[in-house]
Amino acid sequence: LSFGKPAGLAVRVNSGDYVLLVRANQSAAETVKKALRLAGKKLPLSTTVQQEKAEKVVERLRF
Fold first, then answer.
1. Does residue 3 sit within a domain?
2. pLDDT tens by residue, 16-45
């Protein structure tokens, strides 16, 4: 059982939650978007890639 098939999923993600956050220079934006789209296909949920200014993201993450 320890090296067999996965038994189930172990994460709960609500709509609007960040799954991955990447901070990059504007020159790398297209490469990062492509990488995130590919990574999103590996997840068992629908994903979108959004580009925002870092200041906006920091404000949303503050508790």
1. no
2. 888 888 889 999 999 999 999 999 999 888
**How does 34-59 read in b/e, with b if 16+ C-beta sit within 10 Å?**
eebeeeeeeeeeeeeeeeeeeeeeee
Task: Give the pLDDT of residue 63.
Answer: 53
CA–CA gap between residue 30 and residue 13 (Å, rounded): 26
CB 20 within 8 A of CB 36: yes
Q: Is residue 8 part of a domain?
A: no
Can you give the pLDDT at residue 2?
65
In-domain check, residue 6? no
